[in-house]
Write a structure and sequence with these properties.
5-stranded mixed beta barrel; alpha/beta
Length: 406
Amino acid sequence: MATLQPPKIYTVSDLTAEIRALLEDSFSGIWVEGELSNFHQHSSGHMYFSLKDEESQIRAVMFRMQNRQLKFQPKDGLAVLVYGEIGVYERRGEYQIVSEYMEPKGLGALQLAFEQLKEKLRAEGLFDDARKRPIPMLPRRIGVITSPTGAAIHDILQVLRRRFAGVDVLIYPVAVQGDQAAPQIVEALGELSRRGGLDVVIVARGGGSIEDLQAFNEETVARAIAACGIPVISAVGHEVDYTIADFVADLRAPTPSAAAELVIAKQDELAQRLDDLHARMTGAMRSRLHGLRVRMTGLERHIRLLNPVERVRIQRRRLTELLKGLTGWTDRRLTALHSELKATAGKLDSLSPLAILSRGYSICLRLPDREIVKDSSTVIAGDLVEVRLHHGQLQCDVREIQPQEG
């Protein structure tokens, strides 16, 4: 007859230890898909959160040493894939996922980090046009932060030599890819800003994947560009590539070559522009001088009019002119009157009795009353008459009267 074995009775610790061993052995190196909930990052740097779906949820933790490698910021509601293992916290008999790696579901971690940082810096105003500084039209010294062996520096120098050979270029060599790229770019921006003497700085590298351009999407680089005391041109990747550095920089160039073209004008274009400006300036100065000369002439005339001596001189000249006019008018008038008088005298002379006498006629006057004898009946024989001739006169006695016949 078999004897019954007494049931095994676990202590809480023993049971929990066995469950821990069972779970941790069975669920190591697993991927779990879920939505982040109750996310909290402790001041120690550790992240605590839950993963949930429609039916269940499980607690999770990601310690500081692991989460410092994250390229994005976890937050509630974000769908993620978590890699880790099941761990049991024996003191409370709770199990959780100890996460070693996390990535957003659907959207790549780098792309999500890009979007999150972009939104963060935009909210802080680092992309505002109001804080953008103008690029000098003709910088004399240009700093270039890039790889000394890359194609970007070659393209930039080639364009600068072709467009304006007289500009000084200071190349600050940095890594533009890899873990050291962002710290070196930040250091370069700070060093050039402190050193001074540059008119503009170009931060450049050629194209590549989002992973290749990651240094220019780092927050430290973005803030170093914003804090730089010199206007910064971002020239990263190809024309379609946009990085966080592009949004923060004072000017974004689609390529390194374009940055060189943007930063400095073409030499012959500058010469033509200088000629145009010189012509405009000369024309403006001439116009201005002409206006001032006209104004000065008017003022001089006005001053002369206000001068008593000048006013007397002017009035004297005017009086002289009036007198001259009056004299001329008087002479002309006298000449006209003289001519008129001469004509009238001629007419009177033709009607004068003396003129008649000159033609052989005579006038007979009865004496003593000196009446002109026009009719023979007005005198009688014995009267004394005076006959006036053209030259002289006669005293005559009337001897015989012959009345007019018929």
